[in-house]
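Entry 14. Ran structure prediction on the chain below.
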Amino acid sequence: MTDHAATLAPVSWRGRIAALLALLERFPTAILQFLFRFSVAAVFWNSGLTKIASWQSTIVLFRDEYKVPVLPPELAASLAASVELTCPVLLVLGLATRLATLPMLGMTFVIEAFVYPEDWIEHLSWASFLLFILTRGPGPIALDRFLAPLLLGRRR
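Output, structure tokens:
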């Protein structure tokens, strides 16, 4: 009896793990896509709100701390605030989603390369979410799902 129980235990344990993994794999990707869009949108949106809360402080910050190369601080601040207040809305709605990821990826690169390179782990998270959205799309919980067929002349 002991030999029989010993042979069943590993199979039963492996079976349980396999069943658990199968269950986890059924988790809807659509929910992850929405959460990725919402999470990264919140980061950029909050940053944009901070910028417009005190525009003079924002200009000083761009001039003295960020020191983005090539662009004057006023222009860099305006571009950053514009991206941070428009692209997150598009991401959450799932409207022109893939297009909206591009300026945010560009900002992430500039922030990483020129402003806060020591925060690479945080920037890698943002870039990972954005790259997933760019390459896999917004998912079914998005306006793009309904508009793309109309704009591209395809049937759903």
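The radius of gyration is 22 Å. Will compare against last week's run tomorrow.
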